[in-house]
Write a structure and sequence with these properties.
alpha+beta, Ribosomal Protein S5, domain 2, four-stranded antiparallel beta sheet, 11 strands
Length: 301
Amino acid sequence: MLQEVNVRVPATTANMGAGFDTFGMALAMYNTIGLRRLQGRGIRLANVGSHTKSMEQPRDNLTVRAARRVFDTVHERFSGLEFKMYNVIPVSRGLGSSAAAIVGGLLAANLLLGEPLSREELLELAVELEGHSDNVAPALYGGFVSSCQRGGKTVVLRLTPPEQLRAVAAIPDFYLSTSRARKILSAEVRREDAVHNIQCAALLVGAMATGDLQLFATAFDDRLHQEQRYRLIKGAKRVLRAAKGAGALAAGLSGAGPTLIAFTDTDGAAVRQAMRRAWFSCGVHPKVLVLEQDNDGAQGC
């Protein structure tokens, strides 16, 4: 019986232009979770990272709740455990922090118990806890993932993105809750806008499958959610124009925002600098990172 396990989970960017609530891609920024058996009973949180509420109670912690779901599913007693978390993925910024917390708790618990559940079963638990699959699926599997729910099951297509594709993430110094970003969306969409997104989404999957980055650039265009959400993000359009002007293949929201993300087949330095300068000019002080793709997903470490 294992006494201690450690896992790491990548950040994710969801939607990716036209793939609203469907597409996601794993990025090389990681949260690390350690899970260790203790003598006695109870749950302990230790070494909580900078992007976790330091005074959070175990019952409120998303990683702990996810781990408990695994223990309950396989009918094991959930007590006598210590969680050590170092969280690098920023919270409420559109980079999959809640998905990483959920997937990390599920995977750590499953490893500690000797892997009684398959990855497919872990995915279904993750979707139940998160409410949708666009972030949790790439966090678990890595790479680019298109996913949907059919007949109570999550259907996943995983592809390895073109090797030279990397992301430039401009992370602002303010939060935007997913619930607020959802409330601003219109209840209805025009038929021509729906058709536009279907066309672009199909092309983007093709671009990922074939490695055609010019096709990727053409396909990364949305009419369902981004324009409405830009109103919640100061300077968003200026930053995205700057990214494209500096040579980015495509640029838009990461998830529901407020992080803005650009994709490039270069080292990303020019795009990074352009996005930083554009947001500084609007009075926003972002952290801008060039992130490689992650093709491993959540793993023991």
